[in-house]
């Protein structure tokens, strides 16, 4: 009996030990699993805290062409506002806006009743003074014959000759006045000064016409648009690369996809104090009438660049109270912020005068709040691109 009881007690103790061991293993496994999950979670959090960046290198401009795009204004090669030289009423007009005209072509006619009366009066006065001059000349000749016969004195003859000279001077003055009025009468016909297009008509039949050259008083505007002047303001830093004969490409919004050519003809040779630019005048052929005078265009110069400056995309530039900066990555994948000096901003590319070297690994798009010493993960190392 005691033997059986001892066996039962031994079996009971063995069972309790096994259960305790199993419970201990479960507890240990649970603790280990929780620690492992916590470590994995921490590792994931640490990895997520390190931003991933794309690395680029700056591109050198030396021995390459620089594309310089600038806004420009198109103007007619010749533009003439036409004013009235005589007063009156518009009798008729023969060319409307958009009409192509030749030099000397009749544009309009003006009725000039006042001028017509002045001309008639001047012509009548001319007839009168001619008659008086003829009488004085005849009288002087008769007195000359009387002097030959000693019937009159020399002084009396001189008086008659003087009177004839005065009357002839009046004839000349009256004749000049008639010719002046006839010339003024010719201005009653408005003609085109050169071949071109009527770009404005500011009068109509019956309108009162006054002599004058004040702005807004022009009757017509004629423009020669077979060639266009292209006026563009070039930054001072680029002026030295331009000279008469330099070619440029022109694009206009109303002709998408088309490119036109212009050539530099003259340069202002002075820098504007307000804008720091020089006015450049170019000439563009417009024989097909595809370009519009008075419109705006974009001019593209392809210029040699000898500066050797480095370029980066605009997304790589950091702007703040410290000025323009660039975020680079060192050999330990830590951020190094460098201050830079901008030479030119072309919109699609930033040209730097100093601050970085060609070997610097530059972050293409720095994350928000990036600081010196931050650890980053490089996704694409050393991609040689500057655009």
pLDDT under 50 segments (min length 5)? 382-387
Number of helices: 4
Mean pLDDT: 83
Distance between the termini: 98 Å
* Tally of domains: 4
For the CA atoms, what is the radius of gyration?
48 Å
In N-to-C order, the SSE pattern is HEEEEEEHHEEEEHEEEEEEEEEEEE
Shape verdict: rod-shaped
Protein structure class: alpha+beta
Measured by DSSP, the beta-strand proportion falls in: 35-45%
| Biggest sheet overview | 6 strands, antiparallel, barrel
* Share of helical residues: 25-40%
For the largest sheet, list the strands in their spatial order.
Answer: 3-10-13-12-11-14
Q: Name the quaternary structure.
A: single chain
Counted beta strands: 22
Note down, in words, how this protein is organized.
The chain has a six-stranded antiparallel β-barrel with strand order 3-10-13-12-11-14. 31% of the residues lie in helices and 36% in strands. It has helices at residues 2-49, 113-148, 154-186, 236-239, and strands spanning 52-57, 59-60, 64-82, 88-93, 100-101, 106-111, 189-191, 196-201, 208-209, 220-235, 247-251, 260-271, 277-285, 296-305, 310-312, 317-318, 325-329, 335-339, 341-345, 350-354, 362-363, 377-384. The protein has four domains: 1-32; 52-62 and 309-384, conserved putative lor/sdh protein from methanococcus maripaludis s2 fold; 69-75 and 225-305, Efflux pump adaptor protein, beta barrel domain (Elongation Factor Tu (Ef-tu), domain 3, Beta Barrel); 80-191. The termini are far apart.
């Amino acid at each position: 009996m005691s033997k059986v009881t001892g066996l039962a007690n031994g079996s009971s103790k063995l069972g309790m030990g096994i259960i305790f061991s199993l419970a201990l293993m479960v507890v240990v496994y649970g603790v280990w699993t929780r620690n492992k999950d916590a470590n994995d979670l921490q590792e994931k959090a640490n990895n997520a805290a390190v931003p991933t960046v794309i690395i680029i290198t700056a591109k050198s401009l030396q021995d390459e062409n620089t594309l310089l795009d600038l806004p420009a204004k198109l103007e007619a090669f010749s533009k003439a506002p036409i004013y009235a030289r005589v007063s009156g009423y518009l009798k008729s007009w023969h060319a409307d806006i958009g009409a192509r005209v030749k030099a000397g072509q009749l544009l309009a006619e003006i009725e000039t009743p006042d001028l017509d009366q002045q001309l008639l009066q001047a012509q009548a006065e001319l007839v009168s003074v001619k008659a008086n001059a003829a009488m004085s000349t005849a009288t002087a000749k008769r007195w000359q014959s009387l002097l030959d016969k000693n019937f009159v004195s020399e002084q009396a003859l001189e008086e008659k000759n003087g009177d004839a000279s005065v009357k002839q001077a009046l004839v000349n003055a009256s004749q000049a006045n008639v010719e002046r009025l006839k010339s003024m009468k010719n201005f009653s016909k408005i003609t085109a000064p050169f071949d071109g297009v009527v770009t404005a008509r500011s009068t109509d039949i019956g309108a009162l016409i006054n002599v004058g050259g004040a702005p807004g008083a022009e009757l017509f505007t004629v423009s020669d648009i077979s060639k266009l002047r292209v006026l563009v303001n070039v930054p001072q830093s680029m002026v030295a690369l331009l000279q008469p004969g330099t070619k440029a490409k022109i694009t206009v919004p109303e002709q998408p996809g088309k490119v036109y050519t212009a050539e530099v003809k003259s340069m202002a040779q002075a820098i504007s104090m307000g804008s720091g630019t020089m006015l450049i005048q170019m000439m563009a052929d417009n024989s097909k009438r595809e370009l519009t005078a008075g419109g705006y265009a974009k001019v593209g110069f392809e210029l040699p660049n000898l500066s050797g400056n480095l370029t980066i995309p605009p997304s790589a530039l950091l702007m703040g109270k410290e000025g323009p900066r660039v975020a680079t990555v060192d050999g330990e994948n830590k951020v190094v912020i460098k201050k830079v000096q901008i030479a030119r901003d072309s919109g699609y590319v930033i040209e730097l005068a100093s601050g970085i070297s060609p070997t610097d690994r530059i972050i293409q798009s720095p994350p928000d709040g990036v600081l010196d010493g931050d650890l980053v993960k490089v996704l694409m190392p050393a991609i040689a691109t500057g655009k």
